[in-house]
């Protein structure tokens, strides 16, 4: 009696010969051109986005005034108005009173003590967010690799009677993203419902969360696609330097102003991170292996530019929503983004005819629902820490935390597997943390001087 492991792809199961030939021809055509894959995704999203755009424009033109009785005729009309226009912001803005002015003048006499306490609270909150992001994303990355690489046995498989265990491999990342978003919808939707009295009024229109969902999805897609065309050193340098695009996008999206020292500090941090990544043994091996491909092709350059642009837009747009008055809570933002992401994933999977087959795989394979649940839970937890970081510290700090996460993973790998750490890597490591320390020190010195 022997054990035999068979890895099959879910998309090629149970197809007749003609359908298999057409499917393989379609797959070969899709594999040859990333532009075609990009257009297919855009077409899937446009089937939702274009009708929604015309609905929003129609509602905005018809219901320009918030006090019209037509807005309250039915639940559907009320929802469409909330989706397209939102609420009247003037009704929810706080009105300053004499008591508020007295409290403000009283608080101004305690700036020295409150400033020190605020610094300690910020340090504790930043450390808590840093630990939460690192731990949740490490677990999430492990589970993603586990789900995409190992096989799962079908429940009550008849092949066990013959001594053969058939394991099928799941390969649809969009379905995993869908389950992640559905889990977040249930968790944060339940929290918002039971704490609805503590939640601020969602004044902004609902459709604003679709931008976050779309940019987040496209940045992940560009990153994965770029791996097919870009060498490892090139991609690591781009990732290490994304603090610069984040600052540029902050100027475009939020009209954020940065002084010359902040740009110099960002350049030093990007240089130190790039030097650290390029000095690792894995980067040098990848560089020598990819030298025959000239490091970066035009396709890789375009995809990495798309990744940096989308990835820089996402936290800046989220921060702009946090800056609105009255502000949106992070729970509302996670819930809204998850709803739109789930809609995009469902439409894309349905148009690719893999929605029902993915759910069939989910319910018919042993151990797969457990791993998907753990992946979704870690993803929901990571979103909580990420949104908290953006809300309290801004997108630049989140970008720095993500860069440090990559550096720590290389350090752990170097220590555990006994890889070599060069003097250039140690120097780059010192530059990064020196830049972070000096940047934060100058920030608090400037705030203290202003007070």
TrEMBL record:
InterPro entries for the chain: SCL35B1-4/HUT1 (IPR013657)
Membrane topology of the entry: Multi-pass membrane protein
Annotated Pfam families: UAA
Keywords of the record: Membrane, Transmembrane, Transmembrane helix, Transport
Domain of life: Eukaryota
GO cellular component: endoplasmic reticulum membrane; Golgi membrane
GO MF: 3'-phosphoadenosine 5'-phosphosulfate transmembrane transporter activity
TM region positions: 34-56, 123-143, 175-194, 258-278, 290-310, 331-352, 372-390, 397-417, 423-441
Primary localisation category: membrane
DNA damage as UniProt keyword: no
Entry keyword Acetylation: no
Subcellular locations according to the entry: Membrane
Family designation: Belongs to the nucleotide-sugar transporter family. SLC35B subfamily.
Protein name: Adenosine 3'-phospho 5'-phosphosulfate transporter 1
Gene source species: Steinernema carpocapsae (Entomopathogenic nematode)
Lineage: Eukaryota, Metazoa, Ecdysozoa, Nematoda, Chromadorea
